[in-house]
Amino acid sequence: MKRFFLTFAMCTFFAIAASAQQKEASIAVIDSAVFDFGNINEADGPVTHVFKIKNEGELPLVITKVQASCGCTTPDWTKEPIAPGKTGEVKATYDPTGRPHGFTKTISVYSNGKTGTYILTIKGNVIPKQ
User: Fold this and answer.
1) φ, ψ for residue 10, nearest 5 deg
2) pLDDT tens digit string along 51-82?
3) In the list 26, 82, 83, 101, which could disulfide-bond 88, CB 3.0-4.6 Å?
4) Phi then psi dihedrals of residue 35, to 5 deg
């Protein structure tokens, strides 16, 4: 009988612990992780795309760091915690000056979300100045 209660207590403990872990997660859902600018004119200057990030978890989502793959891309992001069910953003600005031809750049996003780090990508083709 003691074994039964001990086994029951352990199973209950593990079930509660597993349930608590699931409730602690914040889950980042991105509308689209890749954006294609298509053809852009170098003469028109920098272009920007805003990636929307929704928190589908039960705890606030915190974007802790955002890093671009090169200096030609400047990221900006929602600095305050994103509440469950709410949306934040990562803005990527690409400067085509002196960079004719095709490009593909990545932006690494670090967060407390269940998946932790994820990669956003911008790409396009720069038409040189005449």
Assistant:
1) -65, -45
2) 999 999 999 999 999 999 999 999 999 999 99
3) 82
4) -130, 130
- Residue 82 CA to residue 54 CA, distance in Å, equals 8
Tokens for 36, please give them. 């294609």
How many whole angstroms separate alpha carbon 28 and alpha carbon 125?
A: 29
Q: Which long-range contacts (CB under 8 A, 24 or more apart) does 15-21 make?
A: none
Q: 89: buried, middle or exposed (CB in 10 Å: 19+, 13-18, 0-12)?
A: middle
CA distances from 53 to 7, 18, 23, 109 (A): 42, 26, 19, 11
- State the pTM of this model: 0.80
